[in-house]
């Protein structure tokens, strides 16, 4: 066998790691803060930047020590469930009865492209646990319609099966461990039939002995069925007067994907506790001067105002808008185009809410290390959950700060950076930091604080769903067909959190 030896340092265009390779890379690079800190110091010493003649010529030097900054730790919010309140500890908490449990009258399970003889017993166990654990969380589950149906991986069989169950409240779909099946189910159920589904991978059926597995499934189902898992017990910035919270993101294809458009996703709350959200997804031409800007934001915002008004009976007096996917160089254009679009939408809907527009940034290289590792938390000795920094390393020209809102599962955690581009609510630094931190605790898929506010997390989920709608479809970038990501309107209106 002959081998081709590649010279070091050459990038391989279009290459992606396999799933197992990604897992190996992630595990091997997950180190504690003390280990990571030492590695950085070693690299700095080897680089020896201060001996660089160019650096000396410009008359500056690079310190070989870490910058020490003052930091504070926010208290976590108290969360309210049906049967009491709970205080998160280190970014996690144990679920009690859902604040509002959903009722599922008619539902069933189908197997799509899976072997009945291998998983039949496990599927029956899943049905039993869904009913029993659902009742313990405050949900009302009728017994599922049986016998459960198993169909081939043929798309026509899937469509026929879903059409027959169009009037069901919910269909749980057991799928193989591949993305094709998942995308096909969501395309047909949400775009063609208008049916709520909960996909469960075959591998998950073999983890039902762990109660966390079934609880995580129920977290998703309850929200999809218009239940409320939990609410913030008290946040004056939202509770004091009607407030709509929004999140937005624009995701782009990789440079190698030349036939894929950019996807925009906007989410907005439609209840007074800012726990339930509806979405808008759309397509934009990629790699243009305006590809980072949400070009239809005025129309989208007007639609979100209408939904909020219809659901609450009130027009919002405040809007908190969390915008992801914006670099520092785009700030001025976002202020000029997007903020003005939001204000025009409000004026056209005959309301004048005070707007606070905050950019959420994760793509940066800032990391926090506790001075004393004894002050670190968890396996990787990260700074405590709720740690924030708003001096020294921040931009002096705009209000901004770094917040570590979550407990890192692997390695050194990355804080999220927040930049306030526009504020008509006259929020103090403490107000903005508290608002962002508290909203990291209302994500519906887990009983953990997440790394950035729920509305932006939901925008990511919505964008991912839209990309799934595009899977294996023909796309003409010269004439983008928004119908490619169109969702059945009655379905989206009935179950606005179907994407969660």
UniProtKB/TrEMBL annotation:
Gene3D superfamilies assigned: 3.40.50.2300, Ribonuclease H-like superfamily/Ribonuclease H
One family name in Pfam for this protein: Piwi
Molecular function GO terms recorded: nucleic acid binding
Record domain Piwi: where: 170-471
Superkingdom assignment: Eukaryota
PROSITE patterns assigned to the protein according to its UniProt record, in alphabetical order: PIWI (PS50822)
InterPro entries to which the protein is assigned, alphabetical: ArgoL2, PAZ_dom_sf, Piwi, Piwi_ago-like, RNaseH-like_sf, RNaseH_sf
Protein name in UniProt: Piwi domain-containing protein
Native source species: Zophobas morio
